[in-house]
């Protein structure tokens, strides 16, 4: 698969989704804790809109804390930019060469796919990401990457219903590949998307288990 072309297509398709949102949709809580749809959309285009010197100044202002920087910038830009401008920032930069600090082209695709799902899943917009994109990202899930994103996947087996992919060991968690991808990136999901003996702890708002853990992304 041509990852660069797949990433450009993902950004263009997501821009079309954003174009179709109602005013109220932009204020719906996303799967990213503390962010609405508009903050996620602002974050997705931050790397396109921000020259490196300014980004470094933002990081210094956040005392070197990357998550603090991205949070404050997303909130500021979400308040300053209109929905049309946020959609255009994705569309107009579909072929932008931005990549995260680690992970290269695959990480850039993963950034757009996962944040796109952060928007569409809580809206009930059942956009299905093309399976070849989902498969590539799932094949790059490792215990190390799961820990990096705060995913607590120990003690379960993730089994995709629509792709030949499994991960882990223990009671099964069944779901669409793109929903399991969200689990690997530390998200919890709305009720009804997952099945299996191990699924309950990954549902948003589910009680913590006996070890005191919640689902990925809680807290």
Keyphrases for this structure?
single chain, 219 residues, mainly alpha, 3-stranded mixed beta sheet
Question: What does this entry show, briefly?
Answer:
By secondary structure, the chain is mostly helical.
Walk me through the structure.
It is a single chain. It is built from ten helices and three strands; from the N terminus they run αααααααααβββα. It is 48% helix and 5% strand. With 219 residues, it is mostly helical. Strand 1 (157-160) and strand 2 (166-168) form a beta hairpin. The chain has a three-stranded mixed sheet with strand order 2-1-3. The longest helix has 20 residues, at 104-123. The protein has helices at residues 3-19, 37-44, 46-49, 52-61, 66-80, 83-91, 104-123, 131-139, 143-148, 177-184; strands at residues 157-160, 166-168, 172-175.
Name the overall outline: globular
Total DSSP E strands: 3
- Let me know the average pLDDT: 91
Low-confidence stretches: 208-219
Question: How would the blueprint of this fold be written?
Answer:
Blueprint: H1 3-19, H2 37-44, H3 46-49, H4 52-61, H5 66-80, H6 83-91, H7 104-123, H8 131-139, H9 143-148, E1 157-160, E2 166-168, E3 172-175, H10 177-184
